[in-house]
């Protein structure tokens, strides 16, 4: 593959993937990104001009999408509205970008017979009971888990997954799908859990934890997500779905306590705030298919070390997130969170 089109390549995970492709292949990358509030364009700085081209545009616009898909070898589709809390306040943009945008890309991939990889989330499967509440059945998500999304965000991602499956079956589009667990690492928007709590503690405030804080997320470093997506793009079987995870289950209290400890604060220094509507209890990924079939293995399995490096990154890069902090907190405060 000489040319790869990465949608959402100026976002948190997409930009990491662009760096990964530039470092590990000889492909030229074209990024198609609308540069919404969530874009982190600075993260693409430093890549040689002859390796990456940024096109600012909307994936739901056929006139923008079609010529770009026509001139690429493969599409890797990250662009999305990605924050559950925003989807509860205003679902419209999630339907347009995640559903109509994916449809628009699929139609172009069909017309020009292009390889397509769709990046999705484990949230399409709904949630699992906590381990301590189901000791005899501590199951995890697999590729066979039935879809059961809870929020407008996860429903829109589930819809996009179904479109990809239908375009494979009905139109022979050469597509694969990956469903990954919660990512962490540099350049994640401070509306998200880990960066929000790091920056709250930097500002001398208490971390804001929804509900009882026992909700579990299965954390994976974004660099491991990128290596998995590249493995699927290069070696994945057309029509297959692969779950991506790195055995990183932690409850939200454990994560904020690790952040508080890092800054020398009391682990009890926590503000419990209004719970998220429909808040999924636990996510957990069984990623054996990806590991055994494609010989992929995560490199960042020490969550505590990865979290420490991420905290240090946010301390060192305050100039990037500081301009957005007051507006993010004002929006949360208006919702009692
Ligand atoms: P993000 O919100 O940080 O970035 C999304 C990017 O998409 C931004 O650069 C934004 O400008 C762009 N975008 C949004 N709407 C667009 C449109 N209509 N046209 C073109 N570009 C548009 O998101 P992220 O956390 O980096 O997530 C990237 C992808 O990975 C999403 O598809 C998400 O569902 C998936 N995913 C995320 C996680 C996670 O933990 N964050 C886990 C699993 C899967
Ligand atoms: O301030 C907060 N306090 C809190 O307790 C925030 C922002 C979140 N939370 C909780 C909610 C979740 O249990 O922390 C957990 C993680 O929250 P988010 O960072 O909003 O992530 P989540 O809703 O799990 O979704 C993320 O992972 C799957 C990404 O945002 C999605 O794009 C991805 O698909």
TrEMBL record:
Polar residues: bias regions: 145-154
Alphabetized UniProt keyword annotations: Lyase, NAD
Pfam families: GDP_Man_Dehyd
NAD found in the keyword field: yes
All residue ranges annotated as the NAD(P)-binding domain in the record: 5-307
Top-level taxonomic group: Bacteria
EC nos: 4.2.1.46
Cofactor: NAD(+)
Catalytic activity, reaction form: dTDP-alpha-D-glucose = dTDP-4-dehydro-6-deoxy-alpha-D-glucose + H2O
First-level EC class: lyase
GO terms for biological process, alphabetical: nucleotide-sugar metabolic process
InterPro entries in the record: dTDP_Gluc_deHydtase, NAD(P)-bd_dom, NAD(P)-bd_dom_sf
Annotated segments matching region Disordered: 136-155
Residues spanning the signal sequence: none
Protein family (similarity comment): Belongs to the NAD(P)-dependent epimerase/dehydratase family. dTDP-glucose dehydratase subfamily.
Protein name as catalogued: dTDP-glucose 4,6-dehydratase
Organism of this sequence: Nocardioides soli
């Amino acid at each position: 593959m000489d040319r790869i089109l990465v949608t959402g390549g100026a976002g948190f995970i997409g930009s990491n993937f662009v760096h990964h492709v530039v470092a590990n292949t000889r492909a030229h990358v074209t990024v198609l990104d609308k540069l919404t509030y969530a874009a982190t364009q600075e993260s693409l700085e430093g890549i040689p001009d002859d390796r990456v081209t940024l096109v600012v545009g909307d994936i739901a616009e056929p006139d923008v999408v079609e010529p770009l898909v026509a001139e690429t070898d493969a599409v890797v589709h990250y662009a999305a509205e990605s924050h559950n809390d925003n989807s509860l306040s205003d679902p419209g943009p999630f339907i347009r970008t995640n559903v109509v945008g994916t449809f628009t890309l699929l139609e172009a991939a069909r017309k020009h017979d292009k390889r397509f990889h769709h990046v999705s989330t484990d949230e399409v499967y709904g949630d699992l009971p906590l381990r301590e509440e189901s000791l005899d059945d501590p199951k995890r998500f697999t590729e066979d888990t039935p879809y059961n999304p809870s929020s407008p965000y996860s429903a829109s991602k589930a819809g996009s997954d179904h479109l990809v499956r239908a375009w494979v079956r009905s139109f022979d589009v050469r597509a694969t799908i990956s469903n990954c667990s919660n990512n962490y690492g540099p350049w994640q928007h401070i509306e998200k859990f880990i960066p929000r709590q790091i920056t709250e503690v930097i500002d001398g405030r208490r971390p804001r934890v929804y509900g009882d804080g026992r909700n579990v997320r299965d954390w994976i470093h974004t660099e491991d997500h990128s290596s998995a997506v590249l493995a699927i793009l290069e070696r994945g079987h057309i029509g297959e779905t692969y779950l991506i995870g790195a055995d990183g289950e932690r409850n939200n209290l454990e994560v904020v306590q690790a952040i508080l400890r890092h800054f020398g604060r009391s682990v009890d220094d926590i503000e419990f705030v209004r719970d998220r509507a429909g808040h999924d209890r636990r996510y957990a990924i069984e990623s054996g298919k990806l590991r055994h079939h494609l010989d992929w293995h995560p490199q960042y399995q020490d969550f505590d070390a990865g979290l420490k490096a991420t905290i240090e990154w946010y301390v060192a890069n305050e100039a990037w997130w500081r301009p957005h902090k007051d507006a993010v907190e004002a929006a949360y405060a208006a919702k009692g969170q």
